[in-house]
Amino acid sequence: MSRKTQDKLSTNIHRTEIFVETIHHDGLCAEFSVMYPISTGPASSFIWAAIIATLLYYMFYVFENTSLSVTVLCAVLLFSFVYCHFIKVHKESLLVIASSGIQYMTTYRTGRQLSLFIPIDCVQDVVINEGITMHSVIYYLVVLMKDPQNGKAKSLLPIFMKTSPRINTLREIYQGIQGILWSRKHSFSQTTIS
Q1: φ, ψ (nearest 5 deg) of residue 65
Q2: What confidence score (pLDDT) does residue 7 get?
Q3: According to the model, what pLDDT value does residue 192 have?
Q4: What is the percent of the chain with per-residue pLDDT over 70, rounded to a whole number?
């Protein structure tokens, strides 16, 4: 049984609109997603296509060289594909399952997805960390990972770095994650006491 608890419009640290969605599947599982809204649609694509076509027509008219125009067109198309497929992130999501672990997934504009699963034995905690740059302080969510054999801290995995939500959004996500992880620890301690 899944129920959506939040779906709100917010802004990130760069003042760009983002959607924040929280889906609770049951008491011990939730998915937190931060995504950019779908682009403005065919109008913006048409404008870019018109600009590129005008530039190509101008190049052909001035230089009277079709091979140069075709080369530039191919370069522009290749650059736009590489940009959308490898750089432009559409959505970042974090699936927290108290009994299994945490799955972090990044979805790019072309639909390509990268996912990383962290077993619950390797999760030490999830915290909000701050980074200080020359001109600002940024906050980001971090999964503290540990070595399951000796329990020592192993590494940090920053979450939601491409969508960069503001601190108030990070707090809401943090509280949801801690609620799930705390309920797991609480239920685990209750079974060991009994």
Answers
A1: -135, 105
A2: 81
A3: 47
A4: 80
Tell me which of 136 and 41 has the higher pLDDT: 136
Q: Taking the mean position of all CA atoms in its chain, how far away is CA 125?
A: 19
Domain parsing of the chain, residue ranges: 3-39+87-193
Query: CB-based contacts of 170: which residues, under 8 Å, 6+ apart?
Result: 128, 139, 140, 141, 160
What stretches of the chain adopt beta strand conformation (E)?
3-11, 17-26, 29-35, 89-97, 101-108, 113-119, 123-132, 137-146, 153-159
Note the pLDDT of residue 181: 85
Whole-angstrom Cα distance, residue 170 to residue 164?
A: 9
What gap in Å lies between CA 9 and CA 20, rounded to an integer? 6
> Residues near 130 by Cβ (< 8 Å), separated by ≥ 6?
137, 138, 139, 140
Number of other CB atoms surrounding residue 135 within 10 Å: 5
* Cα end-to-end span (Å), the chain: 29
Q: Provide the b/e sequence for 6-44 (b: ≥16 CB within 10 Å).
A: eeeeeebeeeeebbbbbbbeeebbbbbbbbbeeeeeeee
pLDDT (0 to 100) of residue 6:
66
Total length of the chain:
194
As to burial, measured by CB atoms within 10 angstroms (0-12 exposed, 13-18 middle, 19+ buried), residue 187 is middle
Max CA separation in the chain (angstroms): 85
